[in-house]
Protein backbone atom coordinates (compact mmCIF):
# COMPACT_ATOMS: atom_id res chain seq x y z
CA UNK A 1 0.00 0.00 0.00
CA UNK A 2 1.27 3.47 -0.92
CA UNK A 3 1.22 6.23 1.71
CA UNK A 4 0.21 9.56 0.18
CA UNK A 5 1.25 12.98 1.51
CA UNK A 6 0.22 16.36 0.11
CA UNK A 7 1.95 19.61 1.15
CA UNK A 8 -0.23 22.72 1.05
CA UNK A 9 0.59 26.45 1.12
CA UNK A 10 -1.19 29.50 -0.30
CA UNK A 11 -0.45 29.54 -4.04
CA UNK A 12 1.59 26.35 -4.48
CA UNK A 13 4.62 28.15 -5.91
CA UNK A 14 6.95 28.67 -2.91
CA UNK A 15 6.66 26.70 0.31
CA UNK A 16 4.66 23.61 -0.64
CA UNK A 17 6.64 22.72 -3.79
CA UNK A 18 9.81 23.23 -1.74
CA UNK A 19 8.52 20.88 0.96
CA UNK A 20 7.45 18.35 -1.67
CA UNK A 21 10.91 18.36 -3.29
CA UNK A 22 12.77 18.02 0.00
CA UNK A 23 10.47 15.27 1.26
CA UNK A 24 10.75 13.34 -2.01
CA UNK A 25 14.52 13.47 -1.65
CA UNK A 26 14.27 12.13 1.92
CA UNK A 27 11.94 9.35 0.75
CA UNK A 28 14.38 8.40 -2.01
CA UNK A 29 17.37 8.47 0.38
CA UNK A 30 15.45 6.12 2.68
CA UNK A 31 14.80 3.78 -0.28
CA UNK A 32 11.03 4.18 0.17
CA UNK A 33 10.19 5.21 -3.41
CA UNK A 34 6.98 3.49 -4.40
CA UNK A 35 5.86 3.15 -0.79
CA UNK A 36 5.46 6.89 -0.17
CA UNK A 37 4.18 9.46 -2.67
CA UNK A 38 4.37 13.22 -2.20
CA UNK A 39 2.75 16.08 -4.04
CA UNK A 40 1.65 19.62 -3.29
CA UNK A 41 -1.13 22.15 -3.83
CA UNK A 42 -2.31 25.60 -2.78
CA UNK A 43 -5.36 26.76 -0.86
CA UNK A 44 -6.10 29.18 -3.70
CA UNK A 45 -6.02 29.13 -7.48
CA UNK A 46 -3.97 32.33 -8.03
CA UNK A 47 -1.03 30.53 -9.64
CA UNK A 48 -2.72 27.43 -11.04
CA UNK A 49 -0.81 26.10 -14.05
CA UNK A 50 2.35 28.09 -13.29
CA UNK A 51 5.73 26.70 -12.37
CA UNK A 52 7.35 27.21 -8.99
CA UNK A 53 8.64 30.67 -8.09
CA UNK A 54 12.10 31.12 -9.62
CA UNK A 55 13.57 31.83 -6.17
CA UNK A 56 12.22 28.47 -4.93
CA UNK A 57 13.76 26.74 -7.94
CA UNK A 58 17.07 28.52 -7.41
CA UNK A 59 17.33 27.69 -3.70
CA UNK A 60 16.36 24.07 -4.30
CA UNK A 61 18.79 23.56 -7.18
CA UNK A 62 21.62 25.28 -5.29
CA UNK A 63 21.06 22.80 -2.47
CA UNK A 64 20.91 19.73 -4.71
CA UNK A 65 17.15 19.17 -4.96
CA UNK A 66 15.19 18.42 -8.13
CA UNK A 67 11.97 20.24 -8.93
CA UNK A 68 9.48 19.77 -11.74
CA UNK A 69 6.32 21.54 -10.67
CA UNK A 70 3.00 22.91 -11.89
CA UNK A 71 0.85 24.77 -9.36
CA UNK A 72 -2.67 23.59 -8.60
CA UNK A 73 -5.39 24.19 -6.02
CA UNK A 74 -6.18 21.65 -3.30
CA UNK A 75 -9.60 20.01 -3.67
CA UNK A 76 -11.65 18.66 -0.77
CA UNK A 77 -12.29 15.47 -2.77
CA UNK A 78 -8.57 14.63 -2.48
CA UNK A 79 -8.89 13.84 1.23
CA UNK A 80 -10.28 10.40 0.40
CA UNK A 81 -7.05 9.34 -1.34
CA UNK A 82 -4.58 11.06 0.99
CA UNK A 83 -3.12 9.72 4.23
CA UNK A 84 -1.65 13.01 5.41
CA UNK A 85 -2.14 16.66 4.43
CA UNK A 86 0.72 18.90 5.54
CA UNK A 87 -0.07 22.59 6.02
CA UNK A 88 2.81 25.06 5.90
CA UNK A 89 1.19 27.54 8.31
CA UNK A 90 -1.72 27.82 10.73
CA UNK A 91 -3.87 29.68 8.18
CA UNK A 92 -3.57 26.75 5.78
CA UNK A 93 -4.28 24.35 8.64
CA UNK A 94 -7.56 26.13 9.45
CA UNK A 95 -8.58 26.42 5.78
CA UNK A 96 -7.91 22.72 5.12
CA UNK A 97 -9.73 21.55 8.23
CA UNK A 98 -12.70 23.74 7.27
CA UNK A 99 -13.06 22.05 3.86
CA UNK A 100 -12.41 18.52 5.15
CA UNK A 101 -15.51 16.41 4.39
CA UNK A 102 -15.28 14.44 7.65
CA UNK A 103 -13.71 14.68 11.12
CA UNK A 104 -11.41 11.83 10.11
CA UNK A 105 -10.24 13.87 7.12
CA UNK A 106 -9.71 16.94 9.32
CA UNK A 107 -7.44 14.86 11.56
CA UNK A 108 -5.22 14.13 8.54
CA UNK A 109 -4.15 17.79 8.45
CA UNK A 110 -0.96 18.64 10.35
CA UNK A 111 1.54 21.50 10.43
CA UNK A 112 4.90 20.65 8.87
CA UNK A 113 6.95 22.15 11.69
CA UNK A 114 5.10 20.01 14.24
CA UNK A 115 7.51 17.31 13.06
CA UNK A 116 10.54 19.42 14.07
CA UNK A 117 11.28 18.92 17.78
CA UNK A 118 13.42 22.08 17.81
CA UNK A 119 10.72 24.34 16.29
CA UNK A 120 9.42 25.68 19.60
CA UNK A 121 5.99 27.31 19.73
CA UNK A 122 6.00 28.98 16.32
CA UNK A 123 5.08 26.21 13.91
CA UNK A 124 4.46 28.40 10.85
CA UNK A 125 6.82 28.40 7.89
CA UNK A 126 6.73 32.10 6.90
CA UNK A 127 5.72 32.99 3.36
CA UNK A 128 8.89 34.13 1.55
CA UNK A 129 7.06 35.41 -1.54
CA UNK A 130 7.25 39.16 -0.81
CA UNK A 131 10.87 39.12 0.37
CA UNK A 132 14.28 38.34 -0.96
CA UNK A 133 16.21 35.15 -1.55
CA UNK A 134 17.16 34.95 2.14
CA UNK A 135 13.53 34.23 3.03
CA UNK A 136 13.53 31.27 0.65
CA UNK A 137 16.76 29.99 2.19
CA UNK A 138 15.23 30.29 5.67
CA UNK A 139 12.15 28.45 4.41
CA UNK A 140 14.36 25.63 3.10
CA UNK A 141 16.10 25.30 6.47
CA UNK A 142 12.74 24.96 8.23
CA UNK A 143 11.48 22.45 5.66
CA UNK A 144 14.64 20.35 5.91
CA UNK A 145 14.53 20.36 9.71
CA UNK A 146 10.94 19.10 9.75
CA UNK A 147 11.30 16.57 6.91
CA UNK A 148 13.32 14.07 8.95
CA UNK A 149 10.66 13.94 11.67
CA UNK A 150 7.89 13.73 9.10
CA UNK A 151 9.61 10.82 7.36
CA UNK A 152 10.03 9.04 10.70
CA UNK A 153 6.31 9.49 11.46
CA UNK A 154 5.27 8.24 8.01
CA UNK A 155 7.63 5.27 8.29
CA UNK A 156 6.00 4.42 11.63
CA UNK A 157 2.58 4.55 9.97
CA UNK A 158 3.79 2.28 7.16
CA UNK A 159 5.15 -0.23 9.63
CA UNK A 160 1.82 -0.13 11.49
CA UNK A 161 -0.06 -0.84 8.24
CA UNK A 162 2.21 -3.81 7.51
CA UNK A 163 1.58 -5.37 10.92
From TrEMBL:
Record carries keyword Hydrolase = yes
In the record, what terms sit under GO molecular function?
protein tyrosine phosphatase activity
EC numbers, comma separated: 3.1.3.48
Coiled coil region boundaries: none
User: Whose protein is this, by species?
Assistant: Streptomyces brasiliensis
Q: Which Gene3D superfamilies match?
A: 3.40.50.2300
Q: Where is the active site?
A: 9, 15, 127
Q: What is catalyzed by this enzyme? A: O-phospho-L-tyrosyl-[protein] + H2O = L-tyrosyl-[protein] + phosphate
SUPFAM superfamilies named among the record's database cross-references: Phosphotyrosine protein phosphatases I (SSF52788)
Q: What is this protein called?
A: protein-tyrosine-phosphatase
Q: Which keywords accompany this UniProt record?
A: Hydrolase, Protein phosphatase
Q: Which SMART domains match?
A: LMWPc (SM00226)
Name the domain of life: Bacteria
Q: Which family is it part of?
A: Belongs to the low molecular weight phosphotyrosine protein phosphatase family.
* Limits of the Phosphotyrosine protein phosphatase I domain: 3-153
Enzyme class, first EC level, given as a word: hydrolase
Do the record's keywords include DNA-binding?
no
Question: Which gene codes for it?
Answer: ptpA
Amino acid sequence: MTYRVCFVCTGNICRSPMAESVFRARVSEADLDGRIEADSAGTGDWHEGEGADQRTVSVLETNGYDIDHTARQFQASWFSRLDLVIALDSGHLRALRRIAPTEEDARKVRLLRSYDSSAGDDLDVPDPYYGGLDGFEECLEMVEAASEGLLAAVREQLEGQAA
